[in-house]
Every structure is written in C-alpha cells, then in structure tokens.
Design a protein that fits this description.
Blueprint: H1 2-47, H2 52-57, H3 69-76, H4 80-111, H5 117-127, H6 136-145, H7 152-175, H8 180-188, H9 193-204, H10 206-221, H11 224-230, H12 239-249, H13 254-284
Length: 290
C-alpha cells in the first residue's frame, strides 16, 4: 500500500506543477494581448495633451506638461459637441426601433407555430450573409425618393434595418426557453397576447434585451460607412463622420486628431465597463438554439 501512496502523491505534484505552468502561460498570453489593446488607447489619450509639433517629433513620449488647447479646439473649431448629440440621437433611436420591432417579431417566431416558420428563419439567417455595401444603391435611391437624405431618419432607418435581423434571432432564441406554464398561467388570468408580451415576456427577457441593445448601440455609433453615404451635412453629421473629416481637413494637426479620437472612444469605453456583464449574458442566454 505504501508504494501506491507515494505514486499518488507524485502524480498530484505533477498535476499541480502542470496546472501552475499552464495558468502562468495563460496569464502571460492574456497580459500580452491586453497590452496590444490598452497601449494604443493610452497612446491616443497621451498625444491628445500635446501640440501637433510634439506629436510629430516625439509621439511615444509621455506628456509631462499637458496642454488643453486641443480639447478647446475640438469644441470651438470643429463643433464636436453637436456631432456627439447627433450620434446619440441616431444611436438611441436605432436601439429603440430595433428592440421594439425585433422583440415583437421574436415573440411571434418563438411562441407561435405556423406554416412557413422555418422558411422565415432560413431567410433571416441568409440575410446575415449579405454585406452592407451590397444594399447601398437601392437604399440610397429609396432615401432620395422619400427626401430622407441628410436627415436623422436617413441614418436611423438603414441602421435599424441592418440590425433588426440580429436582434430578432437573439431575442427569439431567449424567448423560446421561457416555460409554457407561464404563458398558460397568464391566459388563465385573462391576459391577451399584447399584455402577455408586455407584462410577462419583456420583463423576463430583460437580459437579452439589454445585450441586444448594447450590440446595436455600438454598431450604430461606430457605423462610418452609412454615415459617409447617407448623412454629410454638418447639422446632422455623427461623430464618426467628423473624425473622417478631421483627417482630411486638419490632417497636419495630429494633436487635434488624437483629441477627437479620445473624445469618441472614451465615453463608449466607460459605458462598456459598466454593462460588460450583460454582453456575457447575451452571448450565452441569448444564443439561438437549433
């Protein structure tokens, strides 16, 4: 019995050493990968406190003597505050429409059985494979005919249509897991379909609604492709389009460019840090099941 005990102790030691080595290697790789993301952000913020000359001569040096002239120019010279408002109005409007329409569509697809349901799901999955630039010409012509070019709605409607399929599939996958007993109990209490959706399914599906809203907001906020095509006037220009304009009009003012990028990224990063737990829930609880 004693030799067996010795062998078992040796085996446990080997397992512990292997586990420690693997864990250490994992942390080293994750740390190196995180630095590739954190350092560029630090580089941008650091250079936003330098004048353009210092950015060109010593872009990797730390701004020991920071200046705020770039932030003043960002609000006075390029009116970044107006672009902020435009981006928030368009992004939040897109999120509202996507959650409303996608939630209703998901409720029907997940709780009703009807002919052609599988076909609808197949079409929805197929639309995810269509690239956005393939629909630019017909969408632009439609916006011209309806006089929506260079308006808030000219960007809200295309972004809503582009994100609606994703939200519908994710929310439908979550709603399909809700027990039928809740639905039957609501019927017994006299709820109609609309009341059941509002009072039962929406509150229970709050995690997936929150997850979908995060993704939709990020995609709408960072959608440079649509902003450059459908909206080009200053009074409705979102902040991502403003960044592109800065790089062309003020290409030599690198300090101003770094400031504009910092003002664009930092708020989104702060929001992400507060709601990152919902993203993890959306990747698991909101997954579409076969």
């Amino acid at each position: 019995m004693e030799p067996t005990i010795v062998v078992e102790h040796k085996t446990q030691r080997v397992r512990k050493s292997r586990f420690s080595l693997g864990t250490t290697l994992m942390y080293v790789i994750l740390t190196a990968w995180s630095l590739t993301t954190i350092y560029p952000l630090f580089w941008i913020v650091n250079n936003s406190f330098k004048v353009s000359r210092d950015v060109m001569n010593n872009s990797f040096g730390i701004a020991w003597d920071p200046v705020l002239i770039n932030y003043q120019n960002a609000f006075d010279r390029i009116n970044i505050g107006r672009s902020y408002i435009n981006s928030l109005v368009m992004s939040f409007s897109t999120v509202f429409l996507v959650l409303l329409l996608g939630g209703l569509a998901a409720y029907v697809l997940s709780r009703f059985n009807f002919r052609g349901k599988k076909t609808i799901f197949s079409i929805l999955y197929a639309t995810l494979l269509i690239p956005a630039f393939a629909t630019v010409v017909p969408v632009y012509e439609l916006l011209i005919k309806t006089s929506l070019v260079n308006t808030y709605w000219g960007l809200i409607f295309p972004q809503t249509a582009g994100n609606l399929t994703f939200a519908t599939l994710v929310i439908a996958g979550y709603m399909a897991t809700i027990p039928k007993e809740l639905e039957e109990a609501a019927f017994m209490d006299g709820c109609n379909r609309w009341q059941m959706f509002v009072k039962i399914f929406v509150p229970i599906s709050q995690p997936v609604f929150a997850s979908a809203s995060i993704f939709v907001f990020m995609w709408a906020y960072n959608d440079l492709f649509s902003a450059l095509i459908f909206v080009n006037k200053e009074n409705v220009r979102p902040i991502v389009a403003l960044l592109n304009e800065i790089s062309s009009q003020y290409g030599t003012d690198f300090g101003l460019m770094a400031t504009a990028v910092s003002l664009t990224v930092i708020p989104v990063l702060i929001v992400y840090l507060f709601i990152s737990k919902y993203i993890q829930k959306g990747l698991t609880e909101g997954a579409v099941k076969g």
